[in-house]
């Protein structure tokens, strides 16, 4: 009895997936989330290259197959909430990709090939196992929002100077070293560094005075608010902060 029910549920799942695939050929949008899938639907292997949005979030994928490189029209890829350990180099072939959502996985390493995805605007890699800042994203001129919160990053390298984002979220990592290169980020307005391992001396006068950062979130590090407000350049940073807040209200 139980076996029959399980088979029926599987047939229903396959039927739903088939319907999604048929609809996606017309819309370019395929969403198959919350289905407990462990493997890519086999139908995708010979599927026409028409997809612009692929949402396979909240399943049980452990890997992304090489076949995804065929989907060269993709602009939006969401595989958040799976069990993925590594991103394949083939992702670099998705050169039209604008949104990459890989949060809430088990990813430890980011492929260098992502530097080929020059149209990326939003990347969410939060809540993974990343230990090194993904410098391959630094030269992407259209990248606007980068979320690397809740990882295991320990250091922000000098390459950050070439990062083009307006918002960078590094909350809840293990960062103890912050490069002054962050002051050279021409578009960076919001920098979130809450709950890390930073000393107050990490925030040099150059970062506070010369950067474009107007929202700098630093609670939960190895210093208190009084120590932070006593830093050279803090008053200049606060001028930028106040100006932004006035525009918001």
Automatic annotation (TrEMBL):
> What InterPro entries does the entry give?
Leu-rich_rpt, Leu-rich_rpt_typical-subtyp, LRR_dom_sf, LRR_domain-containing, LRR_R13L4/SHOC2-like
Disease resistance R13L4/SHOC-2-like LRR domain location is: 51-128
Annotated Gene Ontology cellular component terms: cytoplasm
Keyword terms:
Leucine-rich repeat, Repeat
Question: Does Protein transport show up as a keyword for this record?
Answer: no
**Which superkingdom is the protein from?**
Eukaryota
Enumerate the Pfam families for this protein: LRR_14, LRR_8
Q: Which PANTHER family match?
A: PTHR48051, RAS SUPPRESSOR PROTEIN 1
| Name of the protein in question | Leucine-rich repeat-containing protein 57
């Amino acid at each position: 009895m139980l076996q029959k029910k399980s088979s029926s549920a599987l047939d229903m799942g396959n039927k739903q997936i088939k319907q999604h695939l048929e609809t996606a050929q017309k819309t370019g949008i395929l969403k198959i989330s919350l289905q407990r899938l462990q493997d890519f639907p086999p139908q995708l292997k010979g599927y026409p290259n028409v997809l612009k949005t692929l949402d396979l979030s909240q399943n049980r994928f452990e890997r992304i197959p090489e076949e995804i490189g065929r989907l060269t029209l993709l602009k939006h890829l969401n595989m958040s909430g799976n069990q993925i350990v590594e991103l394949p180099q083939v992702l670099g072939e998705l050169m039209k990709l604008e949104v990459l959502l890989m949060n809430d996985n088990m990813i430890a390493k980011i492929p260098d090939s992502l530097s080929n995805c020059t149209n990326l605007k939003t990347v969410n890699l939060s809540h993974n196992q990343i230990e090194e800042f993904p410098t391959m994203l630094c030269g992407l001129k259209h990248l606007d929002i980068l979320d690397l919160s809740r990882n295991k990053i320990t250091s922000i390298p000098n390459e950050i100077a070439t990062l083009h984002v307006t918002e960078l979220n590094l909350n809840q990592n293990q960062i103890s070293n912050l490069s002054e290169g962050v002051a050279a980020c021409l578009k960076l307005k919001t920098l979130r560094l809450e709950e890390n391992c930073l000393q107050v001396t990490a925030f040099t006068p150059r970062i506070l005075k010369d950067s474009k950062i107007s929202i700098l979130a630093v609670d939960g590090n190895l210093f208190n608010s009084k120590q932070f407000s006593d830093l050279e350049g803090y008053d200049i940073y606060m001028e930028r902060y106040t100006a932004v807040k006035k525009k918001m209200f």
